[in-house]
Amino acid sequence: MQTTFIVHVEDQPGVLTRVTSLVRRRGFNIESLTVGRTERRGISRMTIVMDVDAAAVARIEANLYKLVHVITVENVTPLPSVFRDLAMIKVAATEASRGAIMQLVDVFRARVVDVSPDSLVIETTGTEDKIDGLVEMLKPYGVLEMARTGRVAMSRGAGVQVAAAATLRAVRDDELPLDSGISCSV
User: Fold this and answer.
1) 32, 75 contact by CB (below 8 A)
2) Which of 46, 154, 162, 163 is deepest in the core (most CB within 10 A)?
3) DSSP codes, 82-98
């Protein structure tokens, strides 16, 4: 079953390699991987999509938590979530075909981001199926080049990790009050 993990990690060199190596060593294939900054400085967000069975999901999550720079791991597959991909598609466009291509772009709620005498660059976001559908419709005109991101996911609503995230922010920002009940030694 296709499983989507959201993993928050410290923005440190080598973290991506450690995460992907862990998955590789366990014999799983990553179908999609996106990494980017978050609203918190120094923390990156990975969205990892793998085709794994239910027993492997718990093992992967537990093993990810063992990595030093991993902060949180969330399997958003069973949760109400929003999933999106981004694609940029360069398609051959003559004067005669430009109008038909523009109509397709409108139908798929995409947009043209670059126009040249012999091609158009189209940007679209949506589910994998929507993007695949647009690509199929553009193939007769001549798809010259395509770049796609992997899946990006976010659970709907405030989520179950709001309290954990607030504590994490306080720990990361050294803002815990003196009577927080957490002790540290150096």
Assistant:
1) no
2) 46
3) EEEEEEEEEEE--HHHH
Q: From 49, 44, 39, 34, select the one nearest 13 (Cα to Cα).
A: 44
CATH 3.90.480.10 fits 2-78, yes or no: no
Architecture of domain 82-148: 2-Layer Sandwich (3.30)
pTM of the model: 0.76
Q: Where are the domains of the chain?
A: 2-78, 82-148
Reported as half-sphere exposure (CB side, CA atoms, 13 A), residue 84 has a value of 8
Contact 155, 83 (CB under 8 A): no
Tell me, yes or no, if the two domains 2-78 and 82-148 fold the same way: yes
Q: Are 126 and 166 in contact (CB under 8 A)?
A: no
pLDDT digits (tens, 9 = 90+) for 83-124: 999 999 999 999 999 999 999 999 999 999 999 999 999 999
Cα–Cα distance for residue pair 182/186, rounded to 1 Å: 13
Place of tokens 């798929």: 108
